[in-house]
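Please predict the structure of the following assembly.
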Amino acid sequence: MATSTWQRWVWLPAVILTGGAASCVGNLGDGPGGDSTNQVTAPLVCDGSTIHPGDSPARRMTRFEYDNTVHELLGDTTSPSAQFPADEVSGIFDNQANTLVVSQLLAEGYMTASEGIAATAVKDLTKLVGCDPKASSEAKCGAQFIESFGKRAFRRPLDTDGRALLTGVFTQALATWDYPTAIRLVIQTALQSSRFIYRLEFGMPQPTAPGVVKLDDYEMASRLSYLLWGSMPDKTLMDAADVGELNTSAQISAQATRMLGDDRARGVIENFHEQWLGLSKLDTLDKDATAFPIFTPALKTTWHDETLAFVDDVVLDGAGDLGTLLSAPYTMMNADTAAFYGVSGGPKTSKFQHVDLDPKQRAGLLTQPSILALNAHVDQTSPVHRGKFVRERLLCEQISPPPANVKAVPPPVDPKATTRERFSQHSNDMACSPCHKLMDPIGFGFESYDAIGQFISTEAGKPVDDSGEIVGSKDADGKFHGAVELAARLATSEEVRSCVVTQWFNYGHGRTTTMEDSCTIQQLRTTFASAKYDVKALLIGLTQTDAFLYRKPVTVGQ
Amino acid sequence: MAKGRFMLNRRALLRGLAGAAIGLPLLEVMGPKAYAAPLPKRLVIFFTPDGTIPGAWVSGSETNFTLGPILQPLQAHKDDLIVLTGINNEAAHHGPGDDHQRGMETMLTGTELQTGPDKGGCDTCPAAGFAGGISIDQAIAQKIGNQTKLASMEFGVSVHEANSWSRMSFSAPGSPMPPVDDPKKAYTRIFGDFNADPAGAKRLAAERHLVLSSVMGDAKKLQGKLGAGDRAKLEQHLSSLDGINKHLDTMVTIGGDCSLPPALGDIGDVYDEANHEKVGQLQMDLMVQAMACDITRVASLQWTTSVGNTTFSQFGLSEGHHELSHHPTDDQTSQAALIKIDAFYAKQLAYLIAKMKTIHEGSGTMFDNTTILWCNELAVGNAHSHNDMRYLLAGSCGGAFKTGRYLDYKGDPHNNLLVSLCQAMDVPVDTFGNPAYCTGPLSGLTG
């Protein structure tokens, strides 16, 4: 573990607090080294003179990537990964390289899935193989299929061993059984091969600089496709790799720009935000039916879809910038959420459409019912959880849970007392207040939204007091009134922008940052700023860093 | 079910069709399985979360003891139990992670966690990743599992989460064994490949052999080109593939007390708290059946996760288990609630014991050859402590343990318990986990 000293330097959080509060907070740290040869212990000088790629551990496909890939490869539409065990979550993401291994349970899943996918794929054998064994020969058609399918499945032209793997299975299956079986088993073999399941990189043979190699064109094609589509390279990428045109930063940037204009980018944008915002926890969310008679399990799905539709609309189809994401006075609404928001004359179908909201009541992601309901209790709001969400997900801090020997449950609902009154113990009790002063005052600013995210103006017979305050941040400190004002402040906070850069780096590279990445991070922040915090520009920027363009040469391990 | 195969129901079997096998040709439909002596031993890990109320477990002396309110549901099996107190889990006091993470991932490994990005409720501890060593169930499975189709099976009840708070079983450092939460998926894994057509089963096994052997051969070649970290990752993968490949032909004999359970009907949402007990009991049914058929000899049942927060509304509770576990000891209401919750789990353990006692084996039952360890990531919830733990062993493991006793170990190392489990399962080791926290087997367990 690097100490937090450098992180403060790199990340800005610089939580400087008085009293015991500093111990409440950690920052998004670097993970285990894995293959790390990270020797960097002091801040880097980022003048472009030295390349610092950081570590590039082999990436195992996530379930999301598996389904996308078999869809692209063989047209599978069955989402076979639903039968796999869940991808282990590390930090907040489920795609972290050091955490993803293949347990026997998962290997069994790969085996069964490959059998189902292959059985479907060989139903129209001639179309699949593109070769008629009667006109040619089974051996020739097999060899042709192995070259073309093998290249797509392994995302690079077959090398000697890769060809031997598929040819060996084909030949033996043909001798033992028959041609359709041989083709089917080639597919099953490919789908269970390490060459398919992992992205294994070796880089170019000649170093670019001491201890640094470029990726080869096919490795770069896969880096691009999994970063931006969560899937295998398409034909355009493979063609570009074939002719050596995934080599320069400009070529890579041009491909990234093209790819973000493709519908396949939606999956990654949604997958990132789903995890960053914790939306999958809506699955198990429950609300008190007496307190909230309009709450139904179906509503949770609608909230979830609303947020993702909004993210898609802003990032891919709209203004594109983080500021809009965090403060736009509109949402994507369908007939179900129109009723929820109380909008008359709104959408009449299940399709989500842009609908402007009262800008005094709603502003971007933070005021969406998904996030408001997730960060609330079954029967009441939770200033603690809402404040914690802001600190952890938007400021990249980690807040310690309460100490063991305390009653860590919210005070019971009291129709005569407001939430703020009931939570006063946190600020009055010296054991609670050092940490809770970081969270509760932010959360109180959300008191205009009940536990299912509906806008309210009175509570316990009194007008809602939505005054709040941020303390201990780098550049967002100060009092505010209501989540709309809070959202506007966060939307222009450098600390929030840096946090989003970090989150995208961690997601995109499947690892947490180390000190070696400090120039990459600095470059990303500059890119993000000069693009007025456009998220697509940040994604393209991710492809232009040392961490993306280079790797360390493989040191064959013992 | 994979396409093109179908499940053989029990009636069809009993009609005397050619037989059923797990993904393979096989089998003999015949009388009770005739094991070569000695009979196989079984290990079950039974985990429940959030610490317990130590005073509600047991009182008295070694042979003259009374089960407290938590253990009351096990009264019928009292002679088969060893109640263990006073064991200290020293590994949980070191290394990265918060008290729950450390308790959970040292519980079966006896060693410190790896570092990682998961920061929990410990201000001064480095953030944690997964366990730093192999877990006891997996160490035993890797020694004795060669004889069965599956070296081990991990069952879960509402584990749901997949992170460093929710894994206890590890096949290697950093390699968690995810439990299966859905009994239907567990059923498919155990019995889904039973194939009524011996020729079809034989063919399927032959195809799988070809594919898996080829994939493994190629992966070994690739390994030689990789750096240490990626190489280790592939090594883990290879061992998973090997676990499948070497048992494609392992026969499963239907007969006696080994039968194909009927396919499970609609069991609803496995994560619905109202289904907590039902899902757990279905999982235990499957575990016992898998063991009766000698499909595996090592299994675990993990009820939720460390920090598990199940709301037991059937007891009129509105707060979750973890929330209740934080309340101060002088809060009588929450203490009573926690006793009820742990007594609920004791009742589930009694269900498992009773079920095992229905499986005939030799001149007794399968339970005679089994030991079940009931364990927890913490001693006391509101203290987050790892000293003076409460554990329970049920079953003598073929006479290895002398049951019907209460043993207070007065601070002996937790890792010694792990050594004792290995030795009882005929895996000869003198130390387990971090040797700094181990002095050999627990004294006096064997009688």
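Chain B has two domains: 1-31+195-259, 39-192+273-437. Residues 39-192+273-437 of chain B form a domain with the Alkaline Phosphatase, subunit A fold (CATH 3.40.720.10).
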